[in-house]
Amino acid sequence: MPPPCFRVLVGVKRVVDYAVKVRITPDHSGVDTANLKTSMNPFCELAVEAAVQLRERLGPERVPEIVAASVGPTACQETLRTALAMGVDRAVLVNTDAAPVSDSKAGSALQPEPLDVARTLAALQSRLQSNLILLGKQAIDDDSNQTGQLLAGILNWSQGTFLSKIEAEKEQDLLQVDREVDEGIERLRLRLPSVLTCDLRLNKPRYITLPNLMRAKTKPIETLSTSDLGVALRTYWQIVRVDEPPARRQVTMLKTVDELVAKLQQLGVLDRA
Predict the structure, then answer these.
(1) What is the DSSP string of 21-40?
(2) CA-to-CA dists, residue 35 to 12, 22, 56, 92, angstroms
(3) Which part of the chain is the Electron transfer flavoprotein alpha/beta-subunit N-terminal domain (predicted)?
(4) One-character DSSP codes across 46-93
């Protein structure tokens, strides 16, 4: 009997590049993203790298195909091409530019929320017949940290979150994973199908060479709509106001205890007597 195959689906998200300093819109309704550099969410890069490394360890017989998927506007195609350049085989964009929205006040440019992203990925999994889904543990724009857990719940699959290590057991449909918890490292054995979310210490994403990037630009990207997958976008919450973090107070460095005592006395915190 041949060993079980890992049919991998990797979710990736387009975000404002982590090195960009974002600014708040004048009306405090959100972040001003106009003309800002975007890139793949760093945690999603870890998920793509984990999928490619899994095939490098197990071989193409056990990992015959890796599909990257993104749920968002047309501009997400560039993020998917980054995944193609890293080594995934196919890319699928679920385009939300013209997606119908159940809440008329939200408008057509709705940013998909974690629950709808999870529902969309679940519908895509049904179409692709994937049995292993890799995601970043969170996105650096909204920091929701929800999509992976919601997806596992919708599919009723085993899940491993905040992973720092992934190992596939030979000749079996089992994974051994290490997840980072407050007390240290928790080790789990998971049976396929599974949803995994990747943390920072899992790996270091590979450098994308120019030839691979150029080849990725010529590869086709399959485009679907949310209606193709039977998913309707909804609004579950509303941003009331966004503000800049408070400015840090000025800090004075003191070299000796005597300077500290004098400063406290000057501030009236310490009695001079």
Answers:
(1) --EE-TTSSSEE-TT--EEE
(2) 21, 11, 37, 25
(3) 28-233
(4) HHHHHHHHHHHHH-TTTS-EEEEEEEE-TTHHHHHHHHHHHT-SEEEE
Q: How far apart are CA 141 and CA 151, in angstroms?
A: 19
pLDDT of residue 99: 59
User: Closest Cα to residue 46, out of 1, 20, 90, 10?
Assistant: 10
Q: In the CATH scheme, what is the homologous superfamily, with its name and number, of domain 7-242? A: HUPs (3.40.50.620)
DSSP assignment string, 99-119:
--BSSGGG-S-PPPPHHHHHH
Which DSSP string do the residues of 56-69 spell out, in sequence order?
HHH-TTTS-EEEEE
Full-model pTM: 0.83
Number of other CB atoms surrounding residue 232 within 10 Å: 12
Q: What is the mean pLDDT of residues 160-165?
A: 93
Q: How far apart are CA 122 and CA 242, in angstroms?
A: 31
Nearest to residue 12, comparing CAs of 86, 64, 97? 86
Classify the C-alpha dihedral 202-203-204-210 as positive or negative: negative
